[in-house]
């Protein structure tokens, strides 16, 4: 089935990604009966302890134009590589507190393997290629740039 691909749209949302917006994305797919599987990844800010200090939040920054273009390329590659019906990708920009959601990837497909494989592919490609940076803010308000692991 040939899908009409949309033009790139911004992935960035200010602050945390709310449970309400996640729930709405999921609910909007109940009428799409060609879908047999969804795979969801939600990245959450951890309250890591680093050198005796606890992370209270991460402040995300990005070159938004380049990041949006890169994520669009990743999106298109995933559509070419996997049998997908639709996809939503949102990433926080600005401050996100520990425990809040900062990345939401939602992939739909007629079959579970395609949805699961595509979701993992998208996540790893974003982490590797998109110029998105996080500054860990500690409880004492000191900070350092986050290193992805």
Describe this structure in words.
This protein is an alpha+beta fold and 149 residues long. It has a single domain, classed as Molybdopterin biosynthesis MoaE subunit (Aldehyde Oxidoreductase, domain 3). The protein contains three helices and eight strands; from the N terminus they run βαβββαββαββ. It has helices at residues 19-27, 64-81, 112-129, and strands spanning 12-14, 37-44, 49-50, 53-62, 86-97, 101-109, 132-138, 143-145. Strands 1, 2, 3, 4, 5, 6, 7 and 8 form an eight-stranded mixed sheet that branches. A hairpin with a 4-residue loop joins strand 7 and strand 8. The mean pLDDT is 93.
Write the layout of secondary structure elements.
Elements: E1 12-14, H1 19-27, E2 37-44, E3 49-50, E4 53-62, H2 64-81, E5 86-97, E6 101-109, H3 112-129, E7 132-138, E8 143-145
Parallel strand pairs: 1-5
Antiparallel strand pairs: 2-6, 3-4, 4-5, 4-7, 5-6, 7-8
């Amino acid at each position: 089935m040939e899908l009409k691909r949309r033009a790139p749209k911004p992935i960035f949302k200010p602050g945390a990604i709310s449970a309400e917006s996640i729930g709405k994305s999921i609910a909007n797919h109940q009428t799409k009966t060609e879908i047999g599987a969804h795979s969801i990844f939600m990245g959450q800010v951890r309250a890591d302890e680093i050198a005796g200090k606890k992370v209270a939040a991460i402040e995300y920054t990005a070159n938004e134009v380049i990041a949006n273009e890169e994520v669009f390329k990743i999106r298109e590659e995933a559509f070419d590589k996997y049998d997908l019906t639709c996809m939503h990708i949102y990433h926080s920009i600005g401050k996100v507190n520990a425990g809040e959601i900062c990345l939401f990837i939602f992939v739909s497909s007629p079959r579970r393997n395609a949805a699961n494989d595509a979701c993992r592919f998208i996540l790893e490609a974003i982490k590797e290629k998109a110029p998105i940076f996080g500054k860990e803010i500690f409880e004492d308000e000191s900070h350092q740039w986050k290193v992805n692991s």
